[in-house]
Amino acid sequence: MIIIGVDPGSRKCGYGILHIERNKILAAGSGIINLEKKVLLEKKLLHLSNELKLIIDQYKPNYSVVESIFYGKNIQTAFILGHIRGVVMYCLSEKDIPVYSFSPREIKKSVTGNGNATKSQVEYMIQSILNLKTPAKEDAADGLACAMCLFNRIRSSEIGYLT
Predict the structure, then answer these.
(1) Distances from the Cα of 38 to the Cαs of 10, 14, 50, 131, in angstroms?
(2) What digits encode the pLDDT tens for the residues 85-107?
(3) What secondary structure letter does DSSP report for 96?
(4) Residues 124-157 pLDDT 10s
(5) Could you give the angle at the alpha carbon of 16 between the alpha carbons of 53 and 100, nearest 5°?
(6) What is the pTM of this model?
(7) Model confidence band, residue 163 (pLDDT cutoffs 50, 70, 90)
(8) 30-63 burial code (b ≥16 CB/10 A, e <16)
């Protein structure tokens, strides 16, 4: 089973790929899709779509997780994140990949045991759990954490086995 986790962001979109075989977890890949600040939104969305489709075609995930939107103080940012999240969900759905969604708090709690964990705590736990030689960058670690959250839910039978 291959799970892709995506952490949508207005400037960086992190992703992580887990390959699970008989409960053995391997970080198959991770990275960041950069979305330039001074580019029109529609161009950002097109770039994101093109890059994400390449990643999906390369790894061929069976399941996906997209972090839900964290609403801060800036409503404009929330709207932009909604567009970005929509493109991510569209690209995954277009390939018939089931899409799950968890809040940042749920993801942090699943990986660290603390829903208020810092980014550095999430990075540390992802590196430790997946035996990574070098830590994944912030947003890529968040993508791996998303995928790990879904795997943990499957393993704990909150979501039926998806094999």
Answers:
(1) 11, 19, 19, 37
(2) 999 999 999 999 999 999 999 99
(3) T
(4) 999 999 999 988 888 999 999 999 999 999 888 7
(5) 75
(6) 0.92
(7) very low
(8) bbbbebeeeeeeeebbebbbebbeebbeebebeb
Kindly tell me if the per-residue pLDDT of 161 is higher than 50. yes
The whole-angstrom distance between residue 127's C-alpha and the CA centroid of its chain comes to: 15
Q: Can you read off the two tokens belonging to residue 155?
A: 């393993």
* 23: Cβ contacts below 8 Å, ≥ 6 apart: 155
Q: How many angstroms separate the CA atoms of 82 and 21, rounded?
A: 33
Q: Which residues contact 99 (CB under 8 A, 6 or more apart)?
A: 64, 65, 66, 89, 92, 93
Distance CA 163, CA 160 (A): 9
Largest CA distance in the chain: 45
Which of 147, 148, 126 shows the shortest CA–CA distance to 135?
Answer: 126
Amino acid identity for residue 140 in this structure = A
Task: Give the chain's end-to-end CA distance (angstroms, integer).
Answer: 6
Compute the distance between CA of residue 53 and CA of residue 39 in angstroms, rounded to an integer: 20
Cite the active site residues: 7, 67, 139
